[in-house]
Amino acid sequence: MSKDDQWDxxxxxxxxxxxxxxLSWGYVKRQKRGxxxxxxxxxxxxxxxxxxxxxxxxxxxxxxxxEALGFSTMSLYRYITAKEDLLILMQExxxxxxxxxxxxxxxxxxxxxxxxxxxxxxxREHPWFTDIPIMGVPMTPNQLRFVDWMLRSMRDFPLSDxxxxxxxxxxxxYARSSGILQRDMDRIVGTSASHEAFSGLAYTSAxxxxxxxxxxxxxxxxxxxxxxxxxxxxxxxxxxxxxxxxLERILDGIAAYLDRQNCKS
Length: 265
Fold this sequence. Notes:
This protein is mainly α and about 260 residues long. The protein contains 13 helices and no strands. The protein folds into two domains: about 5-95, Arc Repressor Mutant, subunit A (Orthogonal Bundle); about 110-195 and about 235-265, Tetracycline Repressor, domain 2 (Orthogonal Bundle), CATH 1.10.357. Helix 7 (about 110-125) crosses helix 9 (about 160-190). Keywords: DNA-binding, Transcription, Transcription regulation.
């Protein structure tokens, strides 16, 4: 029996995983054709990320990656057989971030803050990340490390496993929506459009005339005060303050739910 046949027999369950996920775990057969060491998966993925970071996901193709590496497109397909697999590996590589070491008396709120900010940082550093549709639960090693990190912070919670997973979904969903908004802001501000145009500050005077109490009885006061477009924001508030405010309210809600569960026990 060859080594490849033995690999097939010993990992029957793993074969049910999507091919890109298997590659992320290192379950890849040795190449039988082509010069030894001419390419490797990491080189291909790193180059694909460089292209997507610079020109966006729409500019990414197997042929573009091959050209950047100086190889034929067919050479890449001996390592990564489909663009869908490449996208999985790109997300996995972009998620390779350090997880804070476990500390005695770990504060769950601070862990969750770090979790959300870490995810948002990935989206900001790699704007293409959220252009890839969610196809299912996380199954690649780096992404599962993030899930494990949050379960560690909730290890003493009086919650069931489904409840803990729901908390993770809530936090990651907030991080994703906030990360997309921040990414879009970065894109607009990075072009000819100014931050004032994006926030509406450049159009404050016009909005004050258009948003009348007769037509918008509740919004008109906010526009007139200058808060709507950031003309008048207390303490020099920024969009980061808005993100933090939303995150803290989510954490308050989790804390309130924990108090309720503790009262039941």
